[in-house]
Design goal:
Number of helices: 10
Strand content: 15-25%
Strand order of the largest sheet: 3-4-5-8-9-10-11
Number of strands: 11
Order of helices and strands: EEEHEHEEEHEHEHEHEHHHH
Shape: globular
Distance between the termini: 29 Å
Length: 295
């Protein structure tokens, strides 16, 4: 049951990313503050700004975004709502996708594009350096090593503090680490979608943060299982799903996203949800659904 007296992301505990960025383990994903199809401005810009400011009030100090969210819209709203940024706030963004239209995503992880994408993110976020810059996804048309080497070069130039990955396999992580330190991995993962289980284990063994997206999964049987646990704990299914992630590994940093301040508050309350071992085991036994890329 959620402890009502505790209502802060800090209730989830902390994790130090890259050895120097200590954040509360309940973060915020800023994809949903854009328009339909993750395209253009939100229908209610004022509400989006309120939601972003509420994240800080609730103790969130890790915000995840990407240049492709909008495109550009998410980063612009973050800066409008929160700049000058409070001390300790970590903004993680990504590059490597292009957006030809609503709901459309195309790869471009060429070194030239990544350098241009980073410059755009720096400008929109009003920063001189990105704390965590993630390759959004490997591009089959570009050498993976070339993409990582481009990010390593930008890190050496002081424009990136830490390099990270998204939508990758364990092999990608291992190959990237031969070129530059990797501080976090962001893949689709939930109690019902554990295709990245072995990557979570690898991250845990190497003290690499793991940022899961799509925390509810998609399988119908998974939703039925979580509803039963949620009813027992007098919590919402999403709160239970987030609590499962927090219990799964200390390197997991959930980043649930929403455009609603009310839903944000419900999500952050999961930081204090005590998930009994029996309930955790019951959810862990749910058959996982296949993963897909994006996030």
């Amino acid at each position: 049951m959620v402890k009502e007296q505790i209502f802060s992301a800090a209730a989830a505990g902390t994790f130090t990313i890259g050895g120097d960025l200590t954040v509360n383990r309940m973060g915020y994903g800023a994809m949903r503050i854009t328009g339909p199809g993750i395209w253009g401005p939100p229908a209610d810009k004022a509400a989006a700004l309120v939601t972003l400011r509420r994240t800080i009030e609730l103790g969130v100090n890790l915000i995840d975004t990407a240049d492709s969210y909008g495109p550009n819209t998410s980063e612009e709203l973050i800066a409008e709502a929160l700049y000058p940024y409070p001390a300790g706030l970590v903004i993680a963004t990504k590059g490597g996708w292009e957006r030809p239209g609503p709901g459309q995503w195309t790869h471009n992880a060429s070194p030239t594009h990544l350098a241009e994408a980073l410059e755009g993110s720096l400008k929109r976020l009003r920063l001189d350096r990105i704390d965590i810059y993630q390759l959004h996804a490997p591009d089959n048309a570009v050498s993976f090593e070339a993409s990582i080497e481009a990010l390593a070069k930008l890190r050496k130039q002081g424009k990136i503090r830490h390099v990270a990955l998204s939508n990758v396999t364990r092999e990608h992580v291992e190959r990237a680490r031969k070129i530059v330190p990797i501080v976090s991995v962001q893949n689709r993962y939930s109690f019902a979608d554990r295709e990245s289980d072995f990557i979570v284990d690898y991250c845990e063994q190497n003290n690499i943060a793991f940022l899961p997206w799509a925390p509810l999964g998609q399988a119908k049987e998974a939703h039925e299982a979580i509803k039963k646990v949620a009813d027992d704990l007098k919590a919402s299914p999403l709160q239970v799903a987030l609590a499962w992630l927090l219990k799964r590994s200390e390197v997991i940093l959930p980043i649930p996203g929403t455009s609603s301040a009310k839903h944000l508050e419900e999500n952050i309350a999961a930081a204090a949800l005590e998930l009994p071992q029996a309930a955790y085991d019951r959810l862990s036994a749910v058959s996982h659904a296949p993963a897909s890329l994006r996030g």
